[in-house]
């Protein structure tokens, strides 16, 4: 296993004073989703690790905060003592770049694991700057994988075969899918336990959920019967705009408790962290954005550990 380099964005590493955090709970006790605010306590530490819960971070619409959510949810889960693996399944390599990895210079990436059976996963694994969080990086080479896999037997299960040997090392595997519903995304859904959908708080994102849900249903029926919907997290929320509030009300009306209580609001901190190559939990640990992703991590752990009714 190699360590990730973090040279990109060195000029942006001077942190500015953090503003006072706004509270996510309304004085009336109502959360931003319009439901009563539910305080979930910090999760208990683990005595051992694994096997991992595999979560596909998926939305066929780009620019919804999917990669940002993968990085910061992963870092927040690691803060709570969970061992986390992030898988960059997007040929753009945004997840790798967002962690400061010079992905264009890499000799081995997820692409090699998918198309070259002799490549060992430990030769591709990278440690990140976050304790307890590792990365399988990607770059533009991955764009060829869909063509190379299309004639393979069991092509939809390729990623699952790659990840299977190391699931016992981790508590969570978060797969950052590309913004499409092609073969790479189907591979992620075929090996995942659940799907977490980051959804920008705007009308066209809401319309796209129906198509994504249809794909999830087809994968569940044909490839992965255990696949479930982990939840929908609303991103880029701006409570000052009527449009954001209307979309929020509609998504909660349609999907109910599938929608996480945690809402990710717009902030300049997230673009800063992308350039700096680290999560918001370390770049601006006292910011509202960092608190929001810690809250999301608590919800994810709570949902995964709560007794099933």
From TrEMBL:
Pfam families: AAA_31 (PF13614). Residues 1-23 have a biased composition (Basic and acidic residues). Residues 1-51 are annotated as: Disordered. InterPro entries: AAA_dom (IPR025669), DNA_Partitioning_ATPase (IPR050678), P-loop_NTPase (IPR027417). It comes from the Bacteria. Residues 53-228 form the AAA domain. It comes from Rhodococcoides corynebacterioides. This is Chromosome partitioning protein.
